[in-house]
Design a protein that fits this description.
It contains two helices and four strands. With 71 residues, the chain is α+β, with helices and mostly antiparallel strands.
Length: 71
């Protein structure tokens, strides 16, 4: 499954890098991040997640639900 999940204002994941987010769940792969300038693939992202980012992720239903809950 794939999903897109918003990083809301005040999210504890704002400021985290993608590798640290993925390390929380071995069944979760972050494919990229949507920002105002379009979709950036995971390996091209410089820096960390920001409020307002939309994370494009792939994983099991449980993994995607866990990511959404952690936002």
């Amino acid at each position: 499954r794939t999903g897109e999940i918003l990083v809301p204002a005040g999210s504890p994941l704002a400021g985290c890098d993608l590798a640290s987010v993925m390390s929380r769940d071995p069944d979760l792969v972050l494919i990229g991040v949507r920002r105002d300038d379009g979709l950036t693939r995971w390996h091209e992202i410089e820096g960390t997640l920001r409020e307002g980012d939309i994370v494009v992720a792939m994983g099991s239903s449980a993994s995607l639900a866990g990511l959404a809950a952690s936002m």
